[in-house]
Fold:
Amino acid sequence: MRRLSVRMTIKRRLIAAFTAILILPCAAIGWFAYQSAAEEIEKQIEQSARESVDFMNDSIDELMSGTVADLDYLAARITGEMIEGFDSPRIRAVLDQYKALHPTFSNVYFATPDKLMLRSPEATVADYDPTVRPWFAAAQSRRGTTVINPPSVAASTGDVVVIPSRTTDDGSGVIGGNMDLTNLSARVASVKVGKAGFIYIIDQDRKYVVHPSAELGSVKTDPFTDRFYESDAGTLDYEFGGQDKRAVFVTNELTGWKLVGTIEMREIAEATRGILYSTLIVIAAAIAIGLLAAIGIVRTITKPLRQLTLATERIAGGDLTEEVRAMRDDELGELSASVSRMAGQLRNLIGDVMSSSENVAASSEQISATTEEIAGSSTVQSEATQQMRERFRELSQAISSVAARAEEAAQLAAQTTSIARDG
Structure:
């Protein structure tokens, strides 16, 4: 099989060199610029998600700190001496007043270890024993401290609620309330994370407190959930529903809830895709402009070289009338001037050779005449013989000179042709 060989002319070498010089730096600069911009956009989207989560965390702090302060107030207002059975008008007045001022609670209540349960608004639940409820037991176990209990189903309404509870200052009972998650869910839903991302909340038991689609109070069972509980805050990459996602999460100090902001990784890819296209367009434009400039530069080199090559080939073919004009003030102009001088020197050399040839012819005629004189006069034979030797010596020297000059002309012509062809 014959190997395909490509003759690497100066033109091809220059174009290849310019192409490499253009493509490699442009591609490297474009790639690093794209990576830097992509990383910056990714940081901005992640920072935006973090700010949204922090904002929501501050909102929950504000909501819960107000609730804690209110329960502290109620714990001081309601005392054991106000208990007057199921009626207990003074306790009911305090509860009604609190409920009217706090619409985030669907109801508030006071329960005693004797299973007395006072609600505002009043609702009757058959066989209801408050002392076995988690909110009552949690408050009793942490007397004097407001406890934010995990989401649970309210016995009176069947809704999923969060119950903050606290013992009264005198220990006569426990104050609590059903915090409706509707307002909290609406507030969380109003905070956007990118285009498709959202924020959701899970408690210490991995139960959903707020989520746009999951059932509230249900347990989050995804395999990556445990990683949220390895630290109080951080970033987590995971896959859900066949989509790559990133979660930014924090832990609310008052409730222990995990606030999670999800980011669709495809949003980052879409945001950086425009930068990628712009980068590729800029690289292509730079390479195209560079190649056009490179072709122009190459032509300014190869065109004079081609003219020099043609001129030297004509000189080598015997046309010593060829003149090469030096139109440029650079190395190629110097080469053109050198070729022009070479042609002039060749013309002079050939002229010298022709003159020497004429001298040789004249000497030959004199030798013939001398020979005739020798044949006609033996008396001057000795003198003629000496003159003949002188003439032959001059003839030999003239022939040697002609041969040397002819050889020098041939070498100079060959050298010039080689230089012009090789560039």
